[in-house]
Amino acid sequence: MEWNNELLIMIIMGLILIALMIWIIHLEIRLKRLTAGKKGHSLESSITSLHKDLQQLQTGCRRSESAIEDLQQKTKNSIRSIETIRFDAFKESGGSGKQSFATAFINEQGDGVVISSLYARDRVSVYAKPLNNFSSVFELSEEEKRSITKARDNI
Q1: Counted domains in the chain
Q2: pLDDT at res. 28
Q3: What is the residue range of 112's domain?
Q4: What is the DSSP string of 25-55?
């Protein structure tokens, strides 16, 4: 009976040994596929190259974010909305065919200028009034106020 037990144990050990050898060969094949690259580069050089590329991408991303922030700061002070209201300034005296206008040029904070032109048959007058926070220290006409309101609504 001892002979049968020893034979059985040896057969089981042999099968385990064969299974382990097959597994090792399979792993070797997979490892060679993994490390095989262009001109026989190693896996380490591939990882190093990918790391350099990732660092360059991160640097580019930081530069892009900085440029975007700069542009956002610049656009806050740039003209963001323009609105023109045309009107007939002298309705009672024969009319001018809506040749008069008020145009507001404003940024996000409501700073800018409103330019008005009053057209009459014998003359044209042009006025410019600075704006701060959607209002002016100069008196604004109804048409100027409407152009500022419409410009503010378009931001």
Answers
A1: 2
A2: 92
A3: 81-154
A4: HHHHHHHHHHH--GGG--HHHHHHHHHHHHH
